Amino acid sequence: MPEHQMNSISTFDITKYFLLDVMKDIKTGRIQLPDFQRDWVWDDIHVRRLLASISLAYPIGAVMMLQQGNQSRQFKPRPVDGVLKPENYAPNLLILDGQQRLTTLFMVLLSELAVTIKDQKSQKIIKKWYYLDIEKCLDPECDRRSAIVALPESKIARIFTGGLIDCSTPEKEYQALLFPLSKVFFFSEWRSKFSKYWQYDPQKLELIDTLELEVLKKFEHYQIPVIQLRDSLPKEAVCQVFEDTNTSGCDLNYFDLMSSSYCTADFSLRDDWKRRENRFQSLKVLRKLRSTDFVQAVTLVAGYAKRIEAIKKGWNTDKLPGVACDRAEVLKLTKEEYQKWADPISRGFEESARFLYSQKIFDADDLAYPIQLVILSAIFTVLEERSRSFQVRSMLERWLWCGMFGEVYTRWYEARAGRDVIEVPEWLAGGSLPLTIVQADFSFDRLISVRKRYGAVYQGLAALLRREGAIDWCTGEEINDVIYFEEQIDSHHIFPVAWCRKQGIDPKKYNCLINRTPLSAKTNKKIGSKAPSVYLEEFELSGTSARRLDEMLRSHAIFPITLRRDDFEKFFQMRANNLLTLIGKAMGKTLSFESLEDSVGESHNGNSKEYKLNPEIIRNY
């Protein structure tokens, strides 16, 4: 294959650079970091290990750098730690992998500053100077790492034997026979001063000649393998490469990458987001909104706008631009598109918070799928004033509950988000049902299998009960009001666990959602482990009328008589019926009360009949 063809399909080159050349390029600013690289400070063990390897000419692994051409996709650079005044503010190369190795080497060998490290015990940031113990270096029996001496910023340290190491002046370094690693590349100057100090003692001269030959020449001749990514590599590929190769455990999200890219055009995405984030914090349901969520929403609307433009131009349906918010799509978002849509999207999120409040979804933890908030904000942005109608809001309610109870955003949610942003506005304008609503399904099995207070089904059901006006049994206040005054509401058992165990009731039944409801801790404490008939009588003795208590129970979709008679089986059947009716109404679907034989058989050891609702009991009770 001709060489030019090979180059055209390759995204990187492999080369070697002399260590000194790399250090010089870092000092002048020809090599810098992209600003999405987070600070990552090594400890003393890592620093010694690295220095020992180079002093022995052992490999330290390849580093990866990204070429910086004149393309618009360049990233905002920042100098390597320890570089005070770089000569070049526009670097040729950015370090993607190898940041800590190169930073450490630069600080030790060329910065003329103490090296910043993290203390292993206290985890505090401290500073050290690194030296070679000349005699230990030349002892073949001595482990090279033990020949590397780290001294504090003062260059004076007490050793464990009680003695003192003092290198506070060059003369004291010569006396201690400790060679400062900051002088590796300035050895001839150091050598002449050392020789003069020892009055050209032949033994001392031989010692440092041997040091130069056996150790310091290793630094001078050391070459670092460099994988050099070409600047033609798209942003999403740089992001992928960084995540795959980065060994410090830092995940790079696309917001970091976009922020670095936009900064080259004198626009700080981080500052813009911080302003918006502060405003969102005042709305509880938006308090966990992430920067990545925000740019996903902007990407969805920008994509939708392009699609509408193409429709106006008469493009064929199969040629229309798609709408998506996966990483590759977000990274294509231009600074101009972001600036155009960021304000409308902010209003879209605030409108979403208002809408969710009407559905009694008050807090970020009440929403199982954060992507629904992203989609909702994009839909409100697209609809603008059209969203301010009862009909539109009612239809959006159906979409919300179908997404939640159908658990449709558990997988491939980014692809579904793009589809929703296209299909929901079309449906609101008289088009066909969105796929999210068509595919959403809910069965009796989910009421049985869900036991935890987190998850779409529990969170959805708790919100629906709040929307229906569920009342706390102890205070007689609507749960919405209890939450307003920041009292904790949690999922509690209606028939207490201890009572159910005594009756030999199946734990699958008494722990599932049918026997749980949102109540305050105060109410749960009053219930204790008593039979329902007992705790209801106690509520009445505390001053709540039987009629009012029945209203409270019905607000939780409970038939009061089943609790008054401690009839768990009938309670179970009838509440399941009520909950399925409630969920079906929210989803705009008629839900089947029949259990799915196959799936229930699998999940409940073949006891599917035990969980089938008996319509006769419901009709006759």
Q: Can you characterise this structure?
A:
- The structure is a single chain.
- With 621 residues, the protein is an alpha+beta fold.
- It is 51% helix and 11% strand.
- The strands form 4 sheets. The protein has a 6-stranded mixed β-sheet. Strands 6, 7, 8 and 11 form a 4-stranded antiparallel β-sheet that branches. A two-stranded antiparallel sheet has the order 9-10.
What structural category characterises the helix and strand content?
alpha+beta
The mean pLDDT is: 85
Can you tell me the residue ranges where pLDDT is under 50 for at least 5 consecutive residues?
1-8, 247-251, 595-621
In helices, the fraction of residues equals 40-55%
Name some characteristics of this structure:
elongated; alpha+beta; 4-stranded antiparallel beta sheet; 6-stranded mixed beta sheet; 621 residues
In short:
This protein is α+β, with helices and mostly antiparallel strands.
Provide the fold topology.
Elements (H helix, E strand, L loop, with lengths): L2 H7 L2 E7 H10 L2 E4 L9 H12 L7 E5 L9 E2 L14 E5 L1 H11 L5 E4 L6 E9 H4 L10 E5 L3 E3 L5 E3 L3 H7 L1 E3 L6 H11 L4 H20 L1 E7 L5 H11 L8 H10 L5 H12 L10 H22 L14 H4 L4 H24 L11 H14 L6 H16 L7 H16 L6 H5 L4 H6 L6 H12 L11 H6 L4 E5 L3 H6 L4 H4 L5 E5 H7 L4 H10 L4 H9 L5 H5 L3 H20 L9 H7 L11 H6 L1
Parallel strand pairs: 2-5, 3-12
Antiparallel strand pairs: 1-12, 2-4, 3-5, 6-7, 7-8, 7-11, 9-10, 13-14
Helix pairs in contact: 2-4, 12-14, 12-15, 14-15, 15-17
